Amino acid sequence: MKQTLTPTLTKFHAGYFRISLSLCSQALLWKTLGEPADGNHLFRRLFRLMPSTAFKILWSLALLTLVALSVVYLLRCLFHFDKVKSEFLHHIGVNYLFAPWISWLLLLQSSPFIGSGTDCYTALWWIFMVPVMVLDVKIYGQWFTKGKRFLSTVANPSSQLSVIGNLVGAQAAALMGWRESAICMFSLGMTHYLVIFVTLYQRISGCQCLPVMLRPVFFLFIAAPSMASLAWDSISGSFDSSSKMLFYLSTFLFMSLVSRPNLFKKSMRKFDVAWWAYSFPLTALALASVEYAQEVKGGVAHVLMVFFSTLSVLVSFLLMVSTALHSSAMFAIPSAQQQATDNNNNNNNNNNDDEEEEDINGRRSEPADGIIS
């Protein structure tokens, strides 16, 4: 059995949980759009006309995908623990260890079968949040106590996944009525978000950049403030000024990224699981826009809701189609000749790339095969 699974387990890594992040957040978006609300816009009324079966199918697809990815990663832990250890020690790969638990929390919030006030919901929240808190203690502790793991030396856009884990947990806790727990998780997430954002914004010496193929991860800049606005909305009970400011920041960062298509051009030449990094942040922004439109009830607010929601659904659908078309190649192990060719192509891309690929000292970061690709 081990020999049969080795090619798949060798290729697999925590970055594949980008797929479950996208599908689970899509399920939450569909649930939110389908809920009754005061002064519904035509878009939401049309969405509610869809049969509930459509949402349940999407939620079931997200569940099956997440279960399948979790089982494969568990087998990787059993048979190739050395690779899991290498992933944990990698400055990008370690951040994606938050992704499965974030996916489970999103799936829990969107569940059509488990209410937020039930004992089952509470038990599952604890099961999914404990690993997030353990990773928090480990990673945040390394940032300010361990010489080679200072944040300034390991920070990259995927570092925001640790923040998102706390914010999603805070939102789920607020839905249970656990306001103090929600505030605790929110404060922990936002404190570290400010530190990470400033570190990345200043490009402090030693901060490593992402390989070209991982540039879609830059969209996580959108996800963190979007989830923060949703979490604070759940805690405060309304989409108040604080939530609005975070939504405005997300919108600004979205415009900043989409106005620079050349930044992502090289990463789009060949399909990669990293493409799924586009979907979750856009869905988080769409969720925030829904709550914003519900609070403001203005024409511009509803245009933003329709635009971001439509874009999110469209991007997720295109990614599902692309993944289905390239499914056979996602876990394939390339031959030695192909690996040499790909390495030469990557080196050529790096040599000809623009200044965003260099850090402040002119050094270039190298991808870690089998960890973050």
From TrEMBL:
Q: Which GO terms describe its molecular function?
A: voltage-gated monoatomic anion channel activity
The subcellular location is: Cell membrane
Pfam families from the UniProt entry: SLAC1 (PF03595)
The transmembrane residues are 58-76, 88-108, 123-141, 185-201, 213-233, 245-263, 275-293, 299-321
Q: Which CDD domains match?
A: TDT_SLAC1_like (cd09323)
Describe its membrane topology: Multi-pass membrane protein
InterPro entries to which the protein is assigned, alphabetical: SLAC/SLAH (IPR030183), SLAC1/Mae1/Ssu1/TehA (IPR004695), Voltage-dep_anion_channel_sf (IPR038665)
GO biological process terms, alphabetically, are: intracellular monoatomic ion homeostasis
List GO terms (cellular component aspect).
plasma membrane
Key words, A-Z: Cell membrane, Ion transport, Membrane, Transmembrane, Transmembrane helix, Transport
The UniProt entry, under Gene3D superfamilies, shows: Voltage-dependent anion channel
Q: Residue ranges under compositional bias (Low complexity)? A: 342-351
Instruction: From the UniProt entry, list the residue stretches annotated as the region Disordered.
Output: 337-373
Tell me the protein family, please: Belongs to the SLAC1 S-type anion channel family.
Q: How does it assemble?
A: Homotrimer.
**What does the protein in this record do?**
Slow, weak voltage-dependent S-type anion efflux channel involved in maintenance of anion homeostasis.
Question: What's the name of the protein?
Answer: S-type anion channel SLAH1-like
Q: Say which species the protein is native to.
A: Punica granatum (Pomegranate)
